[in-house]
Amino acid sequence: MPGTLPAEFADLERFAAWAIPTERARYAKRISSTMEELQAFYDAAFPRMDDALAYLEQFSIDALPDDGKHLLWLYCSLITVSFPVEVWRQPRVPDSGAASFDAFVEPAI
Questions:
Q1: What's the mean pLDDT in 75-81?
Q2: Average pLDDT, rounded, for the chain
């Protein structure tokens, strides 16, 4: 996905694969990533958070350009990796067993 972020954030392009639109997909990427990958992303993106917020606040949420959406999604991913990096030191929630449940058929009432 190179070239998907605003030009001001070219230094984060190497992490453009973290610009993921859904929470479930962000979580899946977190779980499938190593701590080294999570740490590298965190170390690059966290210091630019204020810049990203200032950039995004220029736009209404309904009028975000595509590169702005990708930047927003990238920072949603940063939130997803923050606890593993800052607290747990592992991609999964410690001592939690299965952390998700996929329902393929809804119960009929």
A1: 96
A2: 87
pLDDT at 73: 97
Give which of 2, 7, 52 is closest to 18, Cα–Cα.
2
Q: Report the alpha-carbon distance of residue 101 to residue 18 in Å, rounded.
A: 23
What is the spatial distance between Cα 101 and Cα 22, in angstroms, rounded to a whole number?
Answer: 16
Which residues, 6+ apart, have CB-to-CB distance to 54 below 8 Å?
none
- Collect all residues with Cβ–Cβ distance below 8 Å to 61 and sequence separation of at least 6: none
**Burial, 75: exposed, middle or buried (Cβ in 10 Å; 0-12, 13-18, 19+)?**
buried
